Amino acid sequence: MKNYIALAFGLVCSIASAQNINDALQYNQQNLTGTARYQGMSGAFGALGGDLSALNTNPAGAAVFNNHLFSATLSNYNKKNDANYFRTNRQATRNDLEINQVGGVLVFKSNNSDWKKIAIAANYDLVQNFDNNFEISGNSNQGIDKYFLSYANGVPFGPLLKRDGEYLEEAYLDIGKNLGFVDQQAFLGYYGGLINPVDETDDNNIAYTSNANYNTVDQNYIENTNGYNSKFILDFATQYQDNLYLGASLNFHSIMYDKYTEFTETGYESGPITRTTFDNYLHTEGNGFSFALGAIAKLNEVVRVGASYESPIWYRLTDDTSQRISSDEADDDISFINFNVINLYERYTIKTPSKLTGSLALVFGKDGLLSLDYGYQDMSNAEIKPTSDSGFAAANDQISNELGAVSTVRLGGEYRIEDISLRAGYRYEQSPYEDENTIGDLNGFSLGFGYTFGPNRIDIAYNRTEQDVNKQLFNAGLTTPAQVNIANTNVTLGYTVNF
């Protein structure tokens, strides 16, 4: 009966949000996915068009198609994370197979007008695959008690105490709902046995001490994430005379994200605590909207230029979280605070910055092409709303102070030998952080192959990116991050048919 009551309370509870700078970055990222041809050239299609995934860069590209077309793409995602934490190395890998692109275009031609062509395209792309694993271990001088102390210090002790006749899980949810995330973590640290107030007889006490005795502790952290950020494009494009293509798109985004973290700490010196575990679960879902405008111009038979604007993405998201903690000094009923006890966050909005892209391509008839895209996005303009929320205000201050402009360069080429196409590309994305250390620059390359037979084409692509990040285990208290090298490798197979 007790677990049932806890779950019922969780379903109606909401707490002050704990969103931060990581959310704004995570839902802005778009991996190199899409059709195999697009991936084989590292996505450098802004001045080319003629590919359904190219509509992610420039919506005018739909008018380059000469006939109706359908394509579908399957990708295998391999992710490898090498983590170093206090000189201990751990590696985690993951493989996932996904249908990451499906779409088509209808082309209507006119022989009696300067507007020679109208194209209507619909395309689905999996722009971000969140399936990933991290394993981090090391001997640290910063215990999990630091996490709880960072929240507890400054919080009055009296309101943290459960009332007579109140279940521990009810008090946990009630504090989250009425006092907020900070007080809830202080409550969890106290009843989890990690911290105590300096003066337990004073309800106004705002200073806390640790129950953990150590110089260093052994820590093991496991993080598993699942989910996706998908994008459905409804695109309208037209060709004016022989040399100008114009386009606009409405973009509908969908997010599903789950993160499970498991933290274990041992190796304490003599004292009441010998082992602590602290696990967290986060579920996020929602949708977003953006629009894009673009143009492509043929300057002559060889040179093409393109320009596009993608509006901010307005995401509306909801979160729910669960936590559990245990230690030798925890309250006897601490096990009733578990993943069946659910905190529902209030709905919130993330607005990502707009993006500008300029493109140049050289087309050498039927022999091949070279293409270059340059993108610019100022991440310091990202925003989490409502801004009236003090937690969001602090996160927005951090965004504006720590993030900066991001330049993206994509270079791709294709060489054709009759019915065979050989492709290669390079991708660079600047760190969104001003210090360039929290997240490093991203570098990647790609290779591709295509074979055309009749109205059909089969494409294969291989692309790989690497990036170094400093990953903190928790948002507060444990300030020394793990240094992680993230290597993503995609192998993609695509099929296209012309009608």
Low-confidence stretches: 1-17
N-to-C SSE string, H for helix and E for strand: HEHHEEEEHHHEEEEEEEEEEEEHEEEEE
Distance between the termini: 62 Å
CATH superfamily: Outer membrane protein transport protein (OMPP1/FadL/TodX)
Main beta sheet strand tally, sense and closure: 14 strands, antiparallel, barrel
Radius of gyration: 26 Å
Beta-strand level of the residues, as a percent range? over 45%
| CATH fold naming | Porin
The helical percent reads: 10-25%
Average pLDDT across residues? 92
Number of domains: 1
| Structure classification | mainly beta
Q: Main sheet: which strands, in order across?
A: 2-3-4-8-9-10-11-15-16-18-19-20-21-22
* Global morphology: elongated
What is the C-level CATH assignment?
Mainly Beta
Number of distinct beta strands: 22
Give a structural overview:
The chain is mainly beta. It is built from 7 helices and 22 strands. A 14-stranded antiparallel barrel has the order 2-3-4-8-9-10-11-15-16-18-19-20-21-22. Strands 6-7 form a two-stranded antiparallel sheet. Strand 2 and strand 3 (88-109) form a beta hairpin. Helix 4 packs across helix 6 (181-191) and helix 5 (168-178) runs antiparallel to helix 6 (181-191). The chain is elongated. Mean pLDDT is 92; it is low at 1-17.
